[in-house]
Design a protein that fits this description.
Layout (H helix, E strand, L loop, with lengths): L5 H7 L25 H8 L14 H14 L3 E5 L2 H10 L7 E5 L4 H10 L6 E5 L4 H7 L4 E7 L11 H9 L4 E5 L17 E5 L13 E5 L4 H11 L5 H12 L1 H19 L5 E5 L9 H7 L6 E6 L2 H11 L4 E2 L9 E3 L11 H6 L6 E5 L5 H16 L1
Helix pairs in contact: 1-9, 3-9, 10-14, 12-14
The structure holds pyridoxal-5'-phosphate (PLP).
């Protein structure tokens, strides 16, 4: 199937059907699988042949999901995980040992930041943060102990980018593993492995599911690096439920059409809001005014589903704006069919000091919109009315 186009793989890559000839895949709700005989059991356990043993190791639904995701990301192999954080943690813990060092972009998903700052230090693993746009900073932060570079591009919520080709160039000659959390872009928009990244991690909870229903995650990589991930995952147990594997494989079928629409709506929203009298700045990677527009065009197929803007009235107006929305949801998720608004300074990032927030691009009036699939006129009306109501 691998020469087929993205949309076709997303729909047609499927597991072998059973004797029932079902069109849509069944759910393999089973914790274990049977062996034909003692020799079959022995050879499966000895890794001499491929096959299912136990659903903590593999399951047909999870395999269908992950094999398809690998084809879509350009990866050789991978593993489905129970959540995005299970994927982030496993992909780090599998390779890092006491004394190792990680260089990471400063603006990371909150729980990833907690892993780097609170958990990994317990095992003697240190890190340095770099402003994602500071090219020299990346090189300066690397030491002889650096084993991994971890980053998110576009960053959340500031939407800053880093040139993946540049980062891979820094890492390759030094034998450093490049691990990219690609959940903001989704595999339809950006494929870090094609630029040379070693590992791509996902929270499938976001655009991959795209319908706000389940938690899921994935780690995809090369055959060379995979054994460490497989060993760590099999024996520590961050396994995905077969029901979620089934749902997420179904979700991938519509990822291309959903992403086209998310991006279409997001582009429309961003260009309409640009120049609005209540707003200081509107950011969207495919707007000509975006500071890293050229880079966005280089490594992203489309601009993504997230738009941010800066309210002139700061924190106070941010809160008023959220309260004035009638349709758009206030929620901690993103990548849903439903448009979601977040005011990071008063919610997700309220525990940081103002200085820390500014260091990751979170200004007091910053609002993040995860643009959904409703009609753009209704999204615009809700936002315009809330802007009007909050400006007074
Ligand atoms: C949501 C998210 C995660 C964590 O994923 P879960 O599925 O919630 O565990 C990690 N990274 C990014 C960028 C995210 O948005």
């Amino acid at each position: 199937m691998s020469e087929k186009k993205f949309e076709t793989i997303a729909i047609r890559h499927q597991m072998q059907r059973s004797a029932q000839k079902e069109h849509s895949a069944p759910i393999y709700a089973t914790s274990s699988f049977m062996f034909d005989d003692a020799e079959d059991a022995r050879s499966l356990f000895a890794d001499e042949k491929e096959g299912n043993i136990y659903s903590r190791y593999s399951n047909p639904n999870n395999d269908e999901f992950i094999e398809k995701l690998c084809l879509l990301e350009g990866a050789e192999t991978g593993m489905a995980m129970a959540s995005g954080m299970a994927a982030m943690f496993t992909s780090m813990a599998a390779f890092l040992s006491s004394g190792d060092h990680v260089v990471a972009s400063r603006s990371l998903f909150g729980s990833t930041h907690q892993i780097l700052t609170k958990l990994l230090p317990k095992w003697g693993i240190t890190h340095s943060y770099v402003d994602i746009r500071d090219l020299e900073g990346w090189e300066k932060a690397i030491t002889s102990k650096t084993k991994m570079i971890f980053l998110e591009t576009p960053s959340n919520p500031a939407l800053d980018l880093i040139d993946l080709e540049y980062i891979v160039g820094l890492a390759k000659s030094r034998g450093i593993i490049v691990n990219v959390d690609n959940c903001f872009a989704s595999p339809y928009i950006q494929n870090p492995i094609k630029w040379g990244a070693d590992i791509v991690t996902h929270s499938a909870t976001k655009f991959i599911d795209g319908q706000g229903r389940v938690l899921g995650g994935a780690v995809v990589t090369s055959k060379e690096l995979f054994p460490e991930i497989k060993f760590m995952a099999r024996h520590t147990g961050p396994a995905m439920s077969p029901f979620h594997g089934w749902l997420l494989s179904k979700s991938l079928e519509t990822l291309p059409v959903r992403m086209e629409k998310h991006c279409d709506n997001a582009m429309h929203l961003a260009s309409t809001l640009e120049g609005h009298p209540s707003l200081q700045q509107v950011k969207y990677p495919f707007l000509k005014s975006f500071p890293q527009y050229e880079l966005a065009k280089k490594q992203m197929r489309l601009g993504g589903g997230i738009v941010t803007f800066e309210l002139k009235g700061g924190i106070e107006q941010g809160r008023k704006f959220l309260d004035a929305l009638k349709m758009i949801s206030l929620s901690a998720n993103l990548g849903d069919t439903r448009t979601i608004a977040t005011h990071p300074a008063s919610t997700t990032h309220s525990k940081l000091s103002e200085e820390e927030r500014l260091a990751v691009g979170i200004t007091p009036g910053l609002v993040r919109i995860s643009v959904g699939l409703e009609h753009i006129d209704d999204i615009l009306e809700d936002i315009n009315k809330a802007l009007e109501a909050s400006a007074s």
